[in-house]
Amino acid sequence: MNVICRQAVSLTQAARSFSTTSCLHELRKLSRVRVVDNSSIGRAAAVAGKPGRVIHVYNKQEVATLGDKVLLAIKGQKKRAYVVGVKQRQKAGVPRFDTNNVVLIEDNGAPVGTRITVPIPSILRSKEGDFTKILSLATKFV
Amino acid sequence: MALLAHVARGCSRIPKLQLEAALSVRFQSTLSHNDTKARRARELRPRRNYLLNDEVEQHRKSLLQQSPEVEEIPVQQAEANVPRDFRHVMPEFLPDPNPLYRDRVTEKLERMDMYRRRTCIDIPEFYVGSIMAVTMADHHAPGKQSRFVGICIQRSGTGLRADFTLRNVIDGQGVEVRFDMYGASLQKIEVLKLEQRLDDELFYLRDAAQEYSTIPFDFEPVPLPKGATVPVNSTKVKLNPRPWLERWERHELKGVEDLNLPEKKYRRARQVAKPWERWDLMKRQRESINEDEEESIMKETYMETESTRRARGRQKASLKKTR
Question: Which of A5, A36, B8, B158 would suit a FRET pair with B294, their CA atoms being 20 to 30 Å apart?
Answer without folding.
Answer: B8
